[in-house]
Specification:
Largest sheet: 7 strands, mixed
Helix content: 25-40%
Number of strands: 20
CATH topology of the largest domain: Polyamine Oxidase, Chain A, domain 2
Bound molecules: flavin-adenine dinucleotide
Shape: globular
Distance between the termini: 6 Å
Structural class: alpha/beta
Mean pLDDT: 95
Low-confidence stretches: none
Strand order of the largest sheet: 8-7-16-17-18-15-19
Strand content: 15-25%
CATH class of the largest domain: Alpha Beta
Number of helices: 14
CATH architecture of the largest domain: Alpha-Beta Complex
Length: 427
């Protein structure tokens, strides 16, 4: 039974590997020069640069099933975050998980979050820890902002913590993203660690794809330009070199806009872009392994991630690596982008002479622009996402677009797609 998988992102890799292991004759074609899709890393002058700043949650259920986490040599961020606002930097942390006495004391003394908000956060963490993923995803949906207000959080807590923190995850500081995404991500962070593999996020895709590459099942630099049909059945794909690949089933594991174009089927609409400026410095800008959130209302940089503090392998000896994440793809050139990043970082470190000197000597390694990083996930979207079995015979869908916009969802979609094919087309 020949299965053609179009797209070598996480979802396509998981689907292809499962079918290959089950004895199907699998071919995976990938348009770009490497596997991983949105989860790739590059080595640049001895630094590891992911394609945009991203992380893995060790509690992701599908990741736990499909990845050998130990082999990824995971390095964890410290729980909580540093919130930068009006020239101050204050620590917010999870008292259930943080073992750093200084962070715990700092968080206890912070003026940004009131004692009542701290209590609500703790109660929420405890409740979500007790509930299963199915329980937190059940029931009616609403916007994250509506949910936070209903839970009694103050505007100050929402504006200074939830907007930059969860806005950074959903690429949506307005917090209009589904509260189901919020609950799921909050639970993932409470239940496990926030990590990057020592060799970069691309190591996740490398692990998923290793078996397929060894077996010669992957064709890189190979783009599907159209699907082939016989009567009402999808029978293969035409490639960019004009050749055709025939198969008993075709899996589209491409991002939503490309899946819509190739299949002609309705897919989740819209796109959320993000950018990332990679900075190398000779000295650390701050100590510790917490994310730094820019809580200013007019923030350009949303998050500063101290990658080499978390995983020293990300930078060569004597250097420190930071990812400055921006929640859009502004139409400005690299030098304007870097200038705007520097304005925000100067505002954040304004009272520290050493950090200002470090910034003055910082090296910009790369600017990433990712126009399609995620699709928007408003309340009520998820039950209406496409199924792995498409409306066209012989055509299956894998990819975040059948579940939600995350690495966990992409893995889950790949698993479910492979299961559907094994049921419909037993070997
Ligand atoms: C900057 C950024 C930050 C993120 N942060 C996080 C995070 O912290 N945590 C998290 O869980 N998720 C995060 N995500 C989301 C996560 O990366 C994605 O949800 C997930 O990787 C999607 O996987 P996928 O396999 O569905 O699609 P993709 O990774 O997009 O893979 C699709 C593949 O199809 C290929 N392709 C496209 N068209 C064709 C064609 N015609 N022929 C052949 N091949 C084709 C593409 O080249 C690509 O390799 C982030 C994403 C970005 C970009």
């Amino acid at each position: 039974m020949r299965i053609l998988i179009i797209g070598g992102g996480v979802a396509g890799l998981v689907c292809a590997r499962a079918l290959h292991r089950a004895g199907y004759d699998v071919t995976l074609i990938e348009a770009s020069d490497g596997i991983g899709g949105r989860v790739r890393s590059d080595c640049v002058d001895g630094f590891i640069l992911d394609r945009g700043f991203q992380v893995l949650f060790t509690a992701y259920p599908a990741a736990r099933r499909q990845l050998n986490l130990a082999a990824l040599d995971l390095r964890a961020f410290d729980p909580g975050a540093i919130v930068a606002w009006r020239g101050r930097r204050e620590v917010l942390t999870d008292p259930l998980r943080d073992r750093d006495p200084a962070a715990l004391i700092g968080a206890a003394l912070t003026g940004i979050v009131s004692p009542a908000d701290k209590l609500r956060t703790l109660q929420l963490a405890l409740r979500l820890r007790r509930q299963t993923v199915d329980e937190i995803l059940a029931g009616p949906d609403r916007a994250t902002l509506t949910e936070l207000k209903a839970l009694g959080f103050s505007d100050q807590m929402i504006d200074r913590f939830f907007r930059p923190f969860f806005g950074g995850i959903f690429l949506d500081r307005s917090l209009q993203t589904s509260a189901k995404c919020f609950r799921f991500n909050f639970k993932m962070m409470s239940d496990g660690e926030t990590v990057v593999p020592a060799r970069g996020m691309g190591a996740i895709a490398d692990q998923l794809g290793a078996e397929l590459l060894r077996a010669g099942k992957v064709r890189l630099n190979t783009r599907a330009v159209a699907l082939l049909n016989n009567a009402d059945r999808v029978t293969g794909a035409r490639l960019d070199d004009g050749s055709e690949l025939l198969a008993d089933a075709v899996v589209l594991a491409t991002p939503a806009p490309e899946t819509a174009r190739l299949s002609g089927l309705p897919m989740p609409e819209g796109s959320l872009g993000s950018s990332c400026v990679w900075l190398a410095t000779r000295h650390p800008l701050y100590r510790g392994k917490k994310l730094l959130l820019n809580a200013e209302d007019n923030a350009f940089v949303n998050t500063l991630a101290p990658l080499s503090a978390v995983a020293p392998t990300y930078a060569p000896s004597g250097w420190h690596l930071y990812a400055a994440a921006i929640l859009s793809v502004p139409e400005i050139d690299d030098s304007t982008m870097m200038a705007r990043v520097m304005v925000d970082l100067h505002r954040i470190f304004v009272n520290e002479a050493a950090a200002m000197t470090t910034l003055a000597n910082a090296r910009i390694l790369r600017v990433d622009r990712i126009p399609f990083a995620q699709f928007p996930q408003p309340p009520g979207l998820h039950p209406n996402l496409p199924d792995n079995r498409s409306a066209r015979r012989g055509l299956y869908l894998a990819g975040e677009l059948t579940e939600a916009s995350s690495i966990n969802a992409a893995i889950l979609s790949g698993e479910r797609c492979a299961e559907a094919i094994q049921v419909d087309l037993p070997r």
